[in-house]
Known about the structure:
Elements: H1 6-23, H2 57-67, H3 77-82, E1 85-90, E2 93-97, H4 109-112, H5 120-133, E3 137-141, H6 153-165, E4 170-175, E5 182-188, E6 191-198, E7 211-217, E8 228-236, H7 238-244, E9 249-254, H8 255-258, H9 266-278, H10 280-290, H11 304-314, H12 323-332
Parallel strand pairs: 2-3, 3-4, 4-6
Antiparallel strand pairs: 1-2, 5-6, 7-8, 8-9
Bound molecules: zinc ion (ZN).
Amino acid sequence: xxxxxxxxxxxxVKETNEMVRAFFPNIPIFPVIGNHEANPLDQFxxxxxxxxxxxxxxxxxxxTAQWSRVVPGLENGTVLYGGYYSVLLKxxxxxxxxxxxxxxxxNVWLTxxxxxxxxxxxxxEAELGKAEAAGEHxxxxxxxxxxxxxxxxxWSREYNRIIxxxxxxxxxxxxxxTHSDEYEVFLEDDRAIGVAYIAPSQTxxxxxxxxxxxxxxxGDRPYTTRLVLxxxxxxxxxxxxxxxxxxxxxxxxxxxxDYEMASLTPSDWLDxxxxxxxxxxxxDLYWRxxxxxxxxxxxxxxxxxxxxxxxxxxxxSDRNDLDACYEVIRRKRKGIEDIIYKKKN
Length: 345
Ligand SMILES: [Zn+2]
């Protein structure tokens, strides 16, 4: 991961962008910046007070050039400044793509200053304020999920406050980074107000199978909600591909059908977490999907501690707040109030 260079990273950004563009011609594409684009990896200094030779200007210039070719209506200013943007996909429907490495604890620049690098959250709040005034629905895209252990605490807390405030217009949030298939429910007290979808990855690191996902979103119609209605995840079984020399992609599972969900509202996701807490068989299905159906010979086993941790992950969107985590573990332990729990990793 450390054997990268500016030239190498830019080449990969360029090739990936061109490949996606070639396979999805004339389809709007909304890229998100990730932690491996930087060189050295993970490092995203504050453009406001960083010496010129240490900035990521070289990277932002390249992604601006590449993304301008696929993102409809992209105004380049914020990409060039900090790797984030906001575009109106169609009247009433806005896409905001974030540079979440300003909230990633492996970005060591945050040890110097953890107060909203590149003024990104300040900008996000202003964008959402304008979107609310204009009656728009918004989808948020990012790389590092806001509740994971390596999310930086200040950023995690402030991001959640913004989600609470704009619950009424934020209709979906999409993240990656962990390589695992998971989700994070956002809660305000006991009420589920949002969910972050964390899709599994193409890369098989951690012995997973390569994966991709198709989301079905409420589309163009009067009174559309722009909510995610369902999603299906596809994988390629790497063991089988090695044995047969054929890469066969197939649907691994469908969310509504396989998790028996009536719909995909935040409270349905919270309900799934509670049901998994009380039903290990249901959790085992989630765990198989979490690993993209990894080869059993290579797959990580999920012992009882892992079971509780993974349940906890599904209800943690602010890593400073473990109340929902304790509640889901209490349900798993069938009502033992006195939870002594320490989050690993
Ligand atoms: Zn990542």
